[in-house]
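User: Here's a chain of 248 residues. Predict its fold as C-alpha cells.
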Amino acid sequence: MKILVCISNVPDTTSKINFAENDTVFDTNGVQFVINPNDEFGLTRAMWFKEKQGAHVTVVTVGGAESETTLRKALAIGADEAIRVDAAPKDSLFVATQLANVVKNGGYDLIVAGKESLDYNGGVVPGMVAALTDTEFVNACVLLDVEGGQATITREIDGGKEVLSAPLPLVIGVQKGVVEEKDLRIPNMRGIMMARQKTLNVLPAVDAAVQSQVVKFEKPAAKSAVKLVDASNLDELVNLLHNEAKVL
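Assistant: Prediction complete.
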C-alpha cells in the first residue's frame, strides 16, 4: 500500500504573531514552524500501517526551502521519502492543485491529510484534492483501518459518529482520535540520522490560478482587565455581575 501524507508547515502556537506591510503580510521573523497537528495525527497513523502492513509512506508539502525542516522531521519519524512542491502556498485551491498533481503522478492508494490546518483553519484542501483527482473522500476521520484494499472509517458527525466502508484509492481528512496525542512520535537520534539519507524530491509547481488574496490581518481585541472581588464581599460580586457583566 502506498500512502501519501499531506503536511502543512504551520506556526507553533507558542510563537508571537506579528504582521507587516500595513498588516497585509504575515511576519515570519522569530516564528518557529512545526508539522500541522492534524497532519501529524495522520502521519502517525500512516506509520502504523507501515509497521503492521508494510506500507510505503511519502510526505508532501507545498512551500519554500524553509519547509524542508518540517519534512525532515517527518522523515525522522519514519516516513520513507518526502516531496516538496517549490511554491508559496498562496491559497487553498492553489495548494490543492499542487497536491492533486502529485497524487495523479504517484499512484497512491491512500491520501491522508489533516481535516484543517492550524493557521488558517480553512478545512477545504483535502476535499479539493479529492475532487481534482476524482477520488472518494471522507472527512473528520477519528478511526481508520485498511484491510485487503478496503478502508473502514469512523468519522464524527453532528450528535455522534458514523462508520463507513470504502475501497481504495481514498482521500481521508483526519483529526485527533485517529491517534491520540500520547501516540505521537518524537524523532530519536537514529531516526534523525537516517532522515539525512532519505530522498527529498523538489518538484516545480504546476500552473494554477490564485482565486483569493489576503486583504488584511487583524489580531483579536485585547481582553479587558480582570476585577478581583474579596471572597467575603458577595454583595459587590452580585452587583458587578448584575450591573456590569449583565449576566444576572
